[in-house]
Amino acid sequence: MAVRTVIPFGPQHPVLPEPVHLKLELEDERVVGVTPVIGYVHRGIEKAAELNSFRQNVFLCERICGICSITHALTYCQGVEALMGVKVPPRARFLRLFWSELSRVHSHLLWLGLLADALGFESLFMQIWRARETVLDLLEMTAGHRVITSTCLVGGVRRDIDKEMAKEVDKRLVALKEVLDSTAAPTLLHDPTIKRRAVGKGMLSKEQAELLGAVGPTARGSGVAIDMRQTDYAAYKEVGFEPIVEIAGDSYARTIVRAREVYQSIELMRKALAMMPGGEILVRVDGYPEGETISRTEQPRGELIYYIKGNGTNHLERLKIRTPTFANIPTLLVMLPGCEMADVPVITLSIDPCIACTER
Amino acid sequence: MAWMFPTIIKNLFSRPATRRYPFKDVREPFLGYRGKIFWDASKCDLCGDCARVCPAEAIEVSPEDRQIKYYPFKCIYCGTCMQTCLPMAISQDKYYTKPAAAKGVETISVPV
Q1: Which residue of A has its CA nearest to B81?
Q2: Which of residues 147-176 of A touch B (CB under 8 A)?
Q3: pLDDT below 70 — which residues of chain A?
Q4: Dihedral, CA atoms, B46, B33, B77, A315, nearest 10 degrees?
Q5: Which domains does chain B have, with CATH numbers?
Q6: How high is the pLDDT of residue A294?
Q7: How would you write chain A as a 3-class SS string?
Q8: What is the set of domains in chain A, with CATH numbers?
Q9: How confident is the model at residue B21 (pLDDT cuts 50, 70, 90)?
Q10: Given pLDDT bands bounded at 50, 70 and 90, which one contains residue B1?
Q11: Is the confidence at residue B7, as pLDDT, over 90?
Protein backbone atom coordinates (compact mmCIF):
# COMPACT_ATOMS: atom_id res chain seq x y z
CA MET A 1 0.00 0.00 0.00
CA ALA A 2 1.28 3.41 -0.94
CA VAL A 3 2.19 5.67 1.94
CA ARG A 4 1.29 9.35 1.62
CA THR A 5 4.02 11.76 2.68
CA VAL A 6 4.31 15.53 2.49
CA ILE A 7 7.67 16.86 1.32
CA PRO A 8 8.48 20.56 1.52
CA PHE A 9 10.08 21.75 -1.73
CA GLY A 10 11.66 25.15 -1.16
CA PRO A 11 11.64 27.98 -0.18
CA GLN A 12 15.37 27.33 -0.32
CA HIS A 13 16.20 24.72 -2.93
CA PRO A 14 19.23 24.42 -5.25
CA VAL A 15 17.17 24.74 -8.44
CA LEU A 16 14.99 27.61 -7.29
CA PRO A 17 16.48 31.00 -8.04
CA GLU A 18 13.91 32.61 -5.77
CA PRO A 19 11.98 31.52 -2.68
CA VAL A 20 8.72 29.73 -3.40
CA HIS A 21 7.47 26.91 -1.20
CA LEU A 22 5.70 23.89 -2.66
CA LYS A 23 4.04 21.44 -0.29
CA LEU A 24 4.30 18.22 -2.26
CA GLU A 25 2.04 15.32 -1.37
CA LEU A 26 3.68 12.11 -2.46
CA GLU A 27 2.56 8.53 -2.80
CA ASP A 28 5.83 6.65 -2.97
CA GLU A 29 7.76 8.56 -5.66
CA ARG A 30 4.71 10.03 -7.36
CA VAL A 31 3.34 13.50 -6.69
CA VAL A 32 -0.42 13.43 -6.03
CA GLY A 33 -1.01 16.94 -4.77
CA VAL A 34 0.72 20.29 -4.49
CA THR A 35 0.09 23.51 -2.58
CA PRO A 36 2.21 26.48 -3.61
CA VAL A 37 2.96 28.97 -0.84
CA ILE A 38 4.30 32.44 -1.59
CA GLY A 39 5.07 35.41 0.60
CA TYR A 40 8.77 35.23 1.38
CA VAL A 41 9.99 38.31 -0.51
CA HIS A 42 7.16 40.82 -0.22
CA ARG A 43 8.57 44.36 -0.33
CA GLY A 44 5.48 46.58 -0.24
CA ILE A 45 6.27 48.28 -3.54
CA GLU A 46 2.63 49.09 -4.32
CA LYS A 47 2.34 51.10 -1.10
CA ALA A 48 5.73 52.75 -1.68
CA ALA A 49 4.46 53.86 -5.10
CA GLU A 50 1.69 55.86 -3.42
CA LEU A 51 4.25 57.74 -1.33
CA ASN A 52 6.64 58.66 -4.17
CA SER A 53 5.89 61.26 -6.81
CA PHE A 54 4.60 59.77 -10.06
CA ARG A 55 7.83 60.53 -11.91
CA GLN A 56 10.00 58.86 -9.25
CA ASN A 57 7.82 55.75 -9.47
CA VAL A 58 9.43 54.86 -12.81
CA PHE A 59 12.63 53.96 -10.97
CA LEU A 60 10.76 52.16 -8.21
CA CYS A 61 8.79 50.04 -10.71
CA GLU A 62 12.03 49.13 -12.46
CA ARG A 63 13.24 47.52 -9.27
CA ILE A 64 10.30 45.10 -9.06
CA CYS A 65 12.21 42.73 -11.31
CA GLY A 66 15.87 42.89 -12.18
CA ILE A 67 15.61 40.90 -15.35
CA CYS A 68 12.81 42.77 -17.09
CA SER A 69 13.28 46.19 -15.47
CA ILE A 70 12.59 48.06 -18.70
CA THR A 71 9.25 46.30 -19.23
CA HIS A 72 8.02 47.41 -15.80
CA ALA A 73 9.13 50.99 -16.44
CA LEU A 74 7.59 50.88 -19.91
CA THR A 75 4.24 49.58 -18.66
CA TYR A 76 4.10 52.20 -15.92
CA CYS A 77 5.09 55.05 -18.25
CA GLN A 78 2.60 53.87 -20.86
CA GLY A 79 -0.22 53.96 -18.32
CA VAL A 80 0.71 57.41 -16.99
CA GLU A 81 1.08 58.72 -20.54
CA ALA A 82 -2.41 57.40 -21.35
CA LEU A 83 -3.80 59.21 -18.30
CA MET A 84 -2.10 62.48 -19.22
CA GLY A 85 -2.77 62.27 -22.96
CA VAL A 86 0.92 62.33 -23.89
CA LYS A 87 1.94 61.20 -27.36
CA VAL A 88 5.34 59.52 -27.30
CA PRO A 89 7.68 60.37 -30.22
CA PRO A 90 8.07 57.51 -32.75
CA ARG A 91 11.81 57.19 -32.18
CA ALA A 92 11.23 56.68 -28.46
CA ARG A 93 8.75 53.89 -29.21
CA PHE A 94 11.34 52.09 -31.32
CA LEU A 95 13.97 52.50 -28.62
CA ARG A 96 11.53 51.13 -26.02
CA LEU A 97 10.99 48.10 -28.24
CA PHE A 98 14.72 47.62 -28.60
CA TRP A 99 15.37 47.57 -24.84
CA SER A 100 12.30 45.42 -24.14
CA GLU A 101 13.52 42.80 -26.58
CA LEU A 102 17.06 43.00 -25.24
CA SER A 103 15.75 42.26 -21.76
CA ARG A 104 13.69 39.40 -23.19
CA VAL A 105 16.83 37.83 -24.68
CA HIS A 106 18.57 38.44 -21.34
CA SER A 107 15.73 36.74 -19.43
CA HIS A 108 15.29 33.79 -21.78
CA LEU A 109 19.02 33.03 -21.94
CA LEU A 110 19.20 33.22 -18.15
CA TRP A 111 16.28 30.82 -17.90
CA LEU A 112 17.64 28.39 -20.50
CA GLY A 113 20.87 28.33 -18.50
CA LEU A 114 18.99 27.67 -15.28
CA LEU A 115 17.07 24.86 -16.95
CA ALA A 116 20.31 23.26 -18.12
CA ASP A 117 21.58 23.60 -14.55
CA ALA A 118 18.42 21.96 -13.18
CA LEU A 119 18.94 19.08 -15.59
CA GLY A 120 22.52 18.74 -14.38
CA PHE A 121 23.88 19.79 -17.77
CA GLU A 122 26.60 22.10 -16.44
CA SER A 123 28.52 22.65 -19.68
CA LEU A 124 25.40 23.85 -21.50
CA PHE A 125 24.56 26.12 -18.55
CA MET A 126 28.00 27.74 -18.71
CA GLN A 127 27.82 28.07 -22.48
CA ILE A 128 24.43 29.80 -22.45
CA TRP A 129 25.45 32.20 -19.71
CA ARG A 130 28.62 32.97 -21.59
CA ALA A 131 26.49 33.96 -24.58
CA ARG A 132 24.27 36.00 -22.26
CA GLU A 133 27.27 38.12 -21.34
CA THR A 134 27.02 39.74 -24.80
CA VAL A 135 23.49 40.86 -23.93
CA LEU A 136 24.63 42.37 -20.64
CA ASP A 137 27.43 44.19 -22.45
CA LEU A 138 24.89 45.53 -24.96
CA LEU A 139 22.69 46.76 -22.11
CA GLU A 140 25.67 48.51 -20.54
CA MET A 141 26.69 50.01 -23.86
CA THR A 142 23.25 51.35 -24.79
CA ALA A 143 21.63 52.07 -21.41
CA GLY A 144 24.61 52.64 -19.12
CA HIS A 145 23.93 49.76 -16.78
CA ARG A 146 24.05 45.98 -17.00
CA VAL A 147 20.75 45.21 -15.30
CA ILE A 148 18.63 48.25 -14.45
CA THR A 149 18.28 50.24 -17.65
CA SER A 150 16.66 53.45 -16.25
CA THR A 151 16.11 54.66 -19.80
CA CYS A 152 12.32 54.90 -19.85
CA LEU A 153 10.70 58.13 -18.63
CA VAL A 154 7.16 59.50 -18.72
CA GLY A 155 7.09 61.09 -22.18
CA GLY A 156 9.72 59.03 -23.95
CA VAL A 157 13.19 57.67 -23.32
CA ARG A 158 16.28 59.23 -21.88
CA ARG A 159 19.05 57.83 -24.05
CA ASP A 160 19.45 57.65 -27.78
CA ILE A 161 21.27 55.10 -29.89
CA ASP A 162 23.23 56.88 -32.63
CA LYS A 163 24.13 55.39 -36.01
CA GLU A 164 27.59 54.24 -34.98
CA MET A 165 26.34 52.54 -31.86
CA ALA A 166 23.48 50.93 -33.80
CA LYS A 167 26.05 49.47 -36.18
CA GLU A 168 28.10 48.08 -33.32
CA VAL A 169 24.97 46.67 -31.62
CA ASP A 170 23.91 45.01 -34.86
CA LYS A 171 27.36 43.46 -35.26
CA ARG A 172 27.25 42.05 -31.73
CA LEU A 173 23.70 40.74 -32.18
CA VAL A 174 24.76 38.85 -35.32
CA ALA A 175 27.74 37.45 -33.39
CA LEU A 176 25.43 36.39 -30.53
CA LYS A 177 23.17 34.61 -32.99
CA GLU A 178 26.14 32.77 -34.47
CA VAL A 179 27.34 31.69 -31.02
CA LEU A 180 23.87 30.38 -30.15
CA ASP A 181 23.61 28.65 -33.52
CA SER A 182 26.85 26.78 -33.00
CA THR A 183 26.54 25.91 -29.30
CA ALA A 184 23.26 26.09 -27.40
CA ALA A 185 20.64 25.68 -30.12
CA PRO A 186 21.71 22.27 -31.54
CA THR A 187 22.04 20.86 -28.01
CA LEU A 188 18.63 22.14 -26.94
CA LEU A 189 16.98 20.87 -30.10
CA HIS A 190 18.60 17.47 -30.48
CA ASP A 191 20.20 16.29 -27.27
CA PRO A 192 18.50 13.07 -26.12
CA THR A 193 19.24 13.66 -22.39
CA ILE A 194 17.37 16.97 -22.43
CA LYS A 195 14.47 15.40 -24.30
CA ARG A 196 14.30 12.49 -21.87
CA ARG A 197 14.02 14.90 -18.93
CA ALA A 198 11.58 17.37 -20.51
CA VAL A 199 9.42 15.75 -23.19
CA GLY A 200 6.01 14.74 -21.84
CA LYS A 201 6.76 16.19 -18.40
CA GLY A 202 4.38 18.72 -16.87
CA MET A 203 1.60 18.44 -19.45
CA LEU A 204 -0.73 21.42 -19.75
CA SER A 205 -3.44 21.14 -22.39
CA LYS A 206 -4.74 24.11 -24.35
CA GLU A 207 -8.09 24.02 -22.51
CA GLN A 208 -6.40 23.87 -19.10
CA ALA A 209 -4.06 26.73 -20.02
CA GLU A 210 -7.04 28.90 -21.03
CA LEU A 211 -9.07 27.86 -17.99
CA LEU A 212 -6.27 28.60 -15.51
CA GLY A 213 -5.42 31.88 -17.19
CA ALA A 214 -1.85 30.97 -18.16
CA VAL A 215 0.12 33.69 -19.91
CA GLY A 216 3.34 34.06 -21.86
CA PRO A 217 5.52 31.13 -22.94
CA THR A 218 3.59 28.83 -20.57
CA ALA A 219 0.39 29.44 -22.55
CA ARG A 220 2.17 29.58 -25.90
CA GLY A 221 3.82 26.22 -25.22
CA SER A 222 0.30 24.77 -24.96
CA GLY A 223 -0.88 26.21 -28.26
CA VAL A 224 -2.57 29.38 -26.98
CA ALA A 225 -1.46 32.23 -29.24
CA ILE A 226 -1.60 34.93 -26.59
CA ASP A 227 1.00 37.68 -26.70
CA MET A 228 0.53 41.29 -25.65
CA ARG A 229 2.96 42.39 -28.34
CA GLN A 230 0.08 41.90 -30.77
CA THR A 231 -1.76 44.79 -29.07
CA ASP A 232 0.47 47.40 -30.70
CA TYR A 233 2.34 49.02 -27.86
CA ALA A 234 5.85 50.44 -28.40
CA ALA A 235 6.54 49.91 -32.12
CA TYR A 236 5.59 46.26 -32.59
CA LYS A 237 3.07 47.05 -35.31
CA GLU A 238 5.61 48.92 -37.43
CA VAL A 239 8.27 46.24 -36.99
CA GLY A 240 5.83 43.37 -37.54
CA PHE A 241 5.25 40.64 -35.00
CA GLU A 242 3.82 37.12 -34.93
CA PRO A 243 3.66 35.11 -31.68
CA ILE A 244 5.59 31.87 -31.45
CA VAL A 245 3.42 28.90 -30.55
CA GLU A 246 4.18 25.25 -29.81
CA ILE A 247 1.34 22.77 -29.36
CA ALA A 248 2.84 19.92 -27.31
CA GLY A 249 2.13 21.55 -23.91
CA ASP A 250 5.01 19.90 -22.02
CA SER A 251 8.17 21.31 -20.41
CA TYR A 252 10.09 20.78 -23.63
CA ALA A 253 7.56 22.81 -25.67
CA ARG A 254 7.92 25.70 -23.23
CA THR A 255 11.71 25.45 -23.57
CA ILE A 256 11.48 25.53 -27.35
CA VAL A 257 9.12 28.54 -27.27
CA ARG A 258 11.69 30.46 -25.26
CA ALA A 259 14.61 29.32 -27.40
CA ARG A 260 12.76 30.39 -30.56
CA GLU A 261 11.80 33.70 -28.95
CA VAL A 262 15.46 34.50 -28.39
CA TYR A 263 16.00 34.33 -32.16
CA GLN A 264 12.80 36.25 -32.82
CA SER A 265 13.83 39.00 -30.40
CA ILE A 266 17.24 39.31 -32.04
CA GLU A 267 15.51 39.79 -35.40
CA LEU A 268 13.02 42.31 -33.91
CA MET A 269 15.89 44.32 -32.43
CA ARG A 270 17.82 44.36 -35.69
CA LYS A 271 14.70 45.42 -37.59
CA ALA A 272 13.92 48.14 -35.04
CA LEU A 273 17.44 49.55 -35.30
CA ALA A 274 17.26 49.56 -39.09
CA MET A 275 13.76 51.08 -39.29
CA MET A 276 14.13 53.62 -36.47
CA PRO A 277 12.85 57.04 -37.58
CA GLY A 278 14.68 60.24 -36.66
CA GLY A 279 13.44 63.01 -34.42
CA GLU A 280 13.17 63.69 -30.73
CA ILE A 281 13.08 61.03 -28.05
CA LEU A 282 11.46 62.80 -25.11
CA VAL A 283 8.53 65.22 -24.93
CA ARG A 284 7.82 67.62 -22.12
CA VAL A 285 5.07 66.44 -19.79
CA ASP A 286 3.22 68.98 -17.69
CA GLY A 287 0.48 68.44 -15.14
CA TYR A 288 -0.48 65.46 -13.05
CA PRO A 289 -2.20 62.14 -13.87
CA GLU A 290 -5.93 62.00 -13.21
CA GLY A 291 -8.36 59.13 -13.75
CA GLU A 292 -7.72 55.41 -13.96
CA THR A 293 -6.27 53.17 -16.60
CA ILE A 294 -4.94 49.71 -17.29
CA SER A 295 -1.65 49.26 -19.08
CA ARG A 296 -0.60 45.90 -20.52
CA THR A 297 2.68 44.70 -22.00
CA GLU A 298 4.43 41.42 -22.66
CA GLN A 299 7.13 40.67 -20.13
CA PRO A 300 9.54 37.80 -20.89
CA ARG A 301 7.28 35.60 -18.72
CA GLY A 302 3.96 36.80 -20.07
CA GLU A 303 1.37 39.49 -19.76
CA LEU A 304 2.09 42.25 -17.26
CA ILE A 305 -0.81 44.41 -16.07
CA TYR A 306 -0.58 47.77 -14.31
CA TYR A 307 -3.67 49.42 -12.89
CA ILE A 308 -2.96 53.09 -12.28
CA LYS A 309 -5.29 55.53 -10.56
CA GLY A 310 -4.32 59.19 -10.36
CA ASN A 311 -6.10 61.92 -8.43
CA GLY A 312 -4.69 65.01 -10.11
CA THR A 313 -1.81 65.39 -7.65
CA ASN A 314 1.88 64.54 -7.77
CA HIS A 315 1.15 61.22 -6.01
CA LEU A 316 -0.85 58.30 -7.31
CA GLU A 317 -3.99 57.14 -5.56
CA ARG A 318 -3.32 53.47 -6.31
CA LEU A 319 -0.91 51.33 -8.29
CA LYS A 320 -1.78 47.68 -8.71
CA ILE A 321 0.57 45.30 -10.47
CA ARG A 322 -0.32 41.84 -11.75
CA THR A 323 2.82 40.04 -12.84
CA PRO A 324 2.84 37.00 -15.16
CA THR A 325 4.20 34.51 -12.64
CA PHE A 326 1.18 35.17 -10.42
CA ALA A 327 -1.01 34.01 -13.33
CA ASN A 328 1.23 31.03 -14.05
CA ILE A 329 1.56 29.56 -10.54
CA PRO A 330 -1.94 27.93 -10.67
CA THR A 331 -0.83 25.92 -13.72
CA LEU A 332 1.55 24.03 -11.41
CA LEU A 333 -1.52 22.46 -9.77
CA VAL A 334 -2.24 20.73 -13.08
CA MET A 335 1.34 20.12 -14.19
CA LEU A 336 2.78 18.56 -11.06
CA PRO A 337 0.28 15.87 -9.94
CA GLY A 338 1.18 12.56 -11.55
CA CYS A 339 4.84 13.36 -12.10
CA GLU A 340 7.76 11.80 -10.27
CA MET A 341 9.56 13.61 -7.46
CA ALA A 342 12.72 13.90 -9.61
CA ASP A 343 10.83 15.81 -12.31
CA VAL A 344 9.47 18.49 -9.94
CA PRO A 345 12.45 20.89 -10.38
CA VAL A 346 12.25 20.88 -14.18
CA ILE A 347 8.46 21.30 -14.23
CA THR A 348 8.52 24.08 -11.62
CA LEU A 349 11.24 25.88 -13.56
CA SER A 350 9.34 25.48 -16.84
CA ILE A 351 6.92 28.29 -15.88
CA ASP A 352 9.98 30.52 -15.26
CA PRO A 353 8.93 31.55 -11.76
CA CYS A 354 9.89 35.10 -10.82
CA ILE A 355 8.81 35.32 -7.21
CA ALA A 356 10.20 38.79 -6.46
CA CYS A 357 7.95 40.04 -9.28
CA THR A 358 4.96 38.14 -8.00
CA GLU A 359 5.10 39.43 -4.47
CA ARG A 360 6.36 42.92 -5.30
CA MET B 1 26.22 15.05 -24.83
CA ALA B 2 27.40 14.48 -28.42
CA TRP B 3 26.01 17.85 -29.49
CA MET B 4 28.18 19.65 -26.96
CA PHE B 5 31.45 17.90 -27.91
CA PRO B 6 32.66 20.37 -30.59
CA THR B 7 32.13 23.26 -28.13
CA ILE B 8 33.84 21.42 -25.27
CA ILE B 9 36.87 20.58 -27.42
CA LYS B 10 37.03 24.18 -28.66
CA ASN B 11 36.79 25.51 -25.10
CA LEU B 12 39.65 23.26 -23.97
CA PHE B 13 42.03 25.12 -26.24
CA SER B 14 40.72 28.65 -25.87
CA ARG B 15 41.28 31.33 -23.25
CA PRO B 16 38.93 31.51 -20.28
CA ALA B 17 35.88 33.76 -20.74
CA THR B 18 36.02 35.02 -17.16
CA ARG B 19 38.44 37.45 -15.53
CA ARG B 20 40.26 36.77 -12.26
CA TYR B 21 38.54 39.71 -10.62
CA PRO B 22 40.26 40.57 -7.34
CA PHE B 23 43.70 39.82 -8.80
CA LYS B 24 43.20 41.41 -12.19
CA ASP B 25 41.26 44.53 -13.07
CA VAL B 26 37.91 44.21 -14.79
CA ARG B 27 37.46 45.69 -18.24
CA GLU B 28 36.79 49.42 -18.61
CA PRO B 29 33.09 50.30 -18.45
CA PHE B 30 31.49 51.51 -21.68
CA LEU B 31 31.21 55.21 -22.41
CA GLY B 32 28.20 56.68 -20.63
CA TYR B 33 28.15 54.16 -17.79
CA ARG B 34 26.00 55.39 -14.92
CA GLY B 35 28.36 55.32 -11.95
CA LYS B 36 28.83 57.44 -8.87
CA ILE B 37 27.74 61.07 -9.14
CA PHE B 38 29.94 64.06 -8.34
CA TRP B 39 29.45 67.81 -8.22
CA ASP B 40 31.34 70.64 -9.82
CA ALA B 41 30.95 72.88 -6.78
CA SER B 42 31.85 76.03 -8.71
CA LYS B 43 28.83 75.58 -11.00
CA CYS B 44 26.28 74.62 -8.33
CA ASP B 45 23.73 77.30 -7.43
CA LEU B 46 22.26 75.33 -4.48
CA CYS B 47 18.75 75.31 -5.98
CA GLY B 48 18.06 71.85 -4.53
CA ASP B 49 16.44 70.42 -7.68
CA CYS B 50 18.64 67.32 -7.47
CA ALA B 51 17.48 66.59 -3.91
CA ARG B 52 13.84 67.14 -4.89
CA VAL B 53 13.84 64.72 -7.85
CA CYS B 54 16.05 62.00 -6.32
CA PRO B 55 13.90 58.82 -6.03
CA ALA B 56 16.16 57.40 -3.31
CA GLU B 57 16.52 60.58 -1.22
CA ALA B 58 20.29 60.23 -1.49
CA ILE B 59 20.98 63.98 -1.76
CA GLU B 60 20.50 66.71 0.82
CA VAL B 61 21.11 70.33 -0.08
CA SER B 62 21.39 72.99 2.59
CA PRO B 63 21.68 76.52 1.14
CA GLU B 64 22.33 78.02 4.63
CA ASP B 65 25.53 76.03 5.17
CA ARG B 66 26.30 76.06 1.42
CA GLN B 67 26.69 72.29 1.63
CA ILE B 68 25.52 69.24 -0.31
CA LYS B 69 25.36 65.87 1.36
CA TYR B 70 25.53 62.82 -0.90
CA TYR B 71 24.84 59.31 0.39
CA PRO B 72 26.52 56.94 -2.12
CA PHE B 73 24.98 53.86 -0.51
CA LYS B 74 21.46 55.20 -0.92
CA CYS B 75 22.09 56.29 -4.51
CA ILE B 76 20.50 54.07 -7.19
CA TYR B 77 22.54 55.58 -10.07
CA CYS B 78 19.47 56.45 -12.12
CA GLY B 79 20.97 59.74 -13.32
CA THR B 80 17.82 61.81 -12.73
CA CYS B 81 19.75 64.48 -10.79
CA MET B 82 22.25 64.85 -13.59
CA GLN B 83 19.44 65.28 -16.10
CA THR B 84 17.59 67.80 -13.92
CA CYS B 85 20.56 70.01 -12.99
CA LEU B 86 20.19 73.27 -14.97
CA PRO B 87 23.71 74.66 -14.35
CA MET B 88 25.05 71.20 -15.30
CA ALA B 89 27.03 70.90 -12.08
CA ILE B 90 26.43 67.14 -11.68
CA SER B 91 28.17 64.45 -13.70
CA GLN B 92 28.38 60.69 -13.43
CA ASP B 93 31.60 58.80 -12.98
CA LYS B 94 32.09 55.58 -14.90
CA TYR B 95 32.73 53.65 -11.68
CA TYR B 96 30.21 52.73 -9.01
CA THR B 97 30.75 52.97 -5.27
CA LYS B 98 33.37 50.60 -3.90
CA PRO B 99 32.31 48.15 -1.18
CA ALA B 100 32.84 49.57 2.31
CA ALA B 101 32.49 48.52 5.94
CA ALA B 102 30.19 51.43 6.78
CA LYS B 103 27.66 53.43 4.80
CA GLY B 104 29.42 56.75 4.42
CA VAL B 105 28.32 60.20 3.43
CA GLU B 106 30.12 62.69 1.21
CA THR B 107 29.92 66.39 1.95
CA ILE B 108 30.48 68.90 -0.80
CA SER B 109 31.06 72.53 0.12
CA VAL B 110 29.93 75.10 -2.40
CA PRO B 111 32.14 78.26 -2.49
CA VAL B 112 30.43 81.63 -2.30
Answers
A1: A56
A2: 148, 150, 158-159
A3: 1
A4: 90
A5: 29-109 (3.30.70.3270)
A6: 92
A7: CCCEEEEEECCCCCCCCCCCEEEEEEECCEEEEEEEECCCCCCCHHHHHHHCECCCHHHHHHCCCCCCHHHHHHHHHHHHHHHHCCCCCHHHHHHHHHHHHHHHHHHHHHHHHHHHHHHCCHHHHHHHHHHHHHHHHHHHHHHCCCCCCCCEECCEECCCCCHHHHHHHHHHHHHHHHHHHHCHHHHHHHCHHHHHHHCCCCCCCHHHHHHCCCCHHHHHCCCCCCCHHHHCCCCHHHHCCCCCCCCCCCHHHHHHHHHHHHHHHHHHHHHHHHHCCCCCCECCCCCCCEEEEEEEEEECCEEEEEEEEEECCCEEEEEEEECHHHHHHHHHHHHCCCCEHHHHHHHHHCCCCCHHHHHC
A8: 51-327 (1.10.645.10)
A9: confident
A10: low
A11: no
Which pLDDT score, from 0 to 100, does residue A265 have? 92
CA torsion A148-A150-A151-A152 (nearest 10°) is: 110
Chain A residues whose CB is inside 8 A of the B8 CB are 123
Give yes or no for A122 touching B (CB within 8 A). no
CA distances from B60 to A53, A241, A353, B88 (A): 17, 47, 39, 17
Decide if the complex's ipTM is over 0.95. Answer: no
Among B residues 27-86, those touching chain A with beta carbons less than 8 Å apart: 29-30, 32-34, 53, 55-56, 76-80, 83
